[in-house]
Sequence to fold (648 residues):
Amino acid sequence: MLELALKGSKSYWTWVVALLGVIGVGFLLYLGQLQIGLGITGMSRDVSWGFYIANFTYLVGVAAGGVMVVLPYYLHDYKAYGKVTILGEFLAIAALIMCLLFIIVDLGQPMRGLNVLLYPTTNSVLFYDALVLNGYLLINLVVGWNVLEAERNGVHYQKWLKPIIYLSIPFAVSIHTVTAFLYSGLPGRGFWLTAILAPRFLSSAFAAGPALLVLLCLFIRKTTKFDPGKEQIQSLGLTVAYAICINVFFFLCEIFVAFYSQIPEHMDHIKYLFVGLHGHNALVPFMWTSMGLMVIGIILTVNPITRKNETTLAVACALIIAGTWIDKGLGMISGGFVPNPLHEVNEYAPTLPEIGITVGVYAIGALVLTILYKMAVSVKEEVHG
Amino acid sequence: MKSSRRRFMKLAGIAALGLGAQPAIKAIAPAAGNGPQTQFSQGPNVLTARQWAMVIDTRRFKTTEDLEPMIEACHKLHNVPHFEEKNHEIKWIWETHFHNAFPDSANRFISEEAEHRPYLVLCNHCQNPPCVRACPTKATFKRDSDGVVMMDMHRCIGCRFCMAACPYGSRSFNFVEPLKGLVEKEINLKYPRRMKGVVEKCTFCVERLAEGQMPACVEASGGAIVFGDLEDPESEVRQVLRENFTIRRKQSLGTEPCVYYIV
Fold:
């Protein structure tokens, strides 16, 4: 099927070459990081995880979000999603590849990465995270590829795939739960030490993932002969609406617990993010922007008039993607590290090379997604067109 | 017929490959008993304990200068690099304020004298260390024999999960080549330097304990820091703990720190 990705228009190839260029620049920057060390980033002994891990966390969410089309189709027999499940699965593959790359670029000694498997440590959440992320990647590759190939050949997919498809549903939940457990099980990090962290991660994932799918569906309809379908896009929009509402609700639960209990260790991080702490307030404008974007997202997706209009739905989805990205990508990780365990405020900001490497990883993801979607759409055009 | 012969050849090939690979697998795979249980022979002067612990008499340190000898002794001995760039900072033992060392016990009004004293902070070698729980490769581990929380610099993958897990900020990461932060002539050749990309911290001077010496900071403290076996009721540490009221950092987290402070 891969040959389908080799036939494309001029703009397709321009896009691919442009991505390769960005990947090249990112790779060169990464070679620099290998040479000099993680000192080229903005991280420090106080904020010891930064942009890489934050984007990793966000993309785990995008990967998990794909389950929002798989679950209704396979468990509830919601037929309309038959057309788009492959898009959800392939999006998950691209997102997971980015996740794994973000972990690798974040390691101080990447060539020792396999130590995680050579010395399996069952008390470390990272060990389980490695297992579920790779497992979910494998599941999506096997399922996505085989189901698409079966569709192309005009036959029903193999019987043995069914249990794996069912397995993919708890796996999707597990990847983001385990990723949340990386943070929420740490004593002395008041911002993350909350049982609602995993549910919060999942709710933002189920908003961001489907929102991205809506945009991708609209893009595919516009640029190819395959129409993912009006009903499908509307159903995804409804999922986004519910998930973003739940996400904001969970966040407000967090605010209540921190500020009604008035326990400083829980309040201080939120204060740092939203009003600044001891005169340090680098993230304040971002966090309020994030909240604003999510609230506008709620208004536009909950209101049936704006949700049913695909233009406003697209705007809402873009706002929600941006809002949840700021929340998780900028606030969630830095916020947990500031103030530090000694209650000192040392802020973090990513450096240019760090951003460059991050963009490079995103470009790899975009390239993988482009190739996979090109395949999927070509098959759909063949079959339905 | 043809297909079964092919199948036989295939199986034979796989079997041969397996046999051929066996010595290689043996060489790579850890032999039985070659795990953390391995016993090394101990030197004649080795100091042993079931759980090493430290008591710092903060009353004896009035000014920053009073703490300098200990910090310097430690950092010199262990080739801890010094960087001007704050983000690259590495420290094993350092000085801080009362409200930073004990953020959950800092009253608004406390003894002025106690508030203005400098406080030494270092790895607490917790009895229930969250860093050890978090490490995905057992590169940081609690030594069974004496409770020291140690680092295997050759196994650490630099994921920094231990740094996120430590509630005391006791761990540092080599963001750049540590040699850049050392003065070539002052390097202690008896203690290994680290490489970039790994995490490091205080080790309670295991290399000195093995030779019958007290940790460097204890030696430099002129008796203000007492070091000994927490599990031995006759040890000096236990005696000091019996006679003085002490506090520990963030005790409520259940990590059971082994560094005590007389305030």
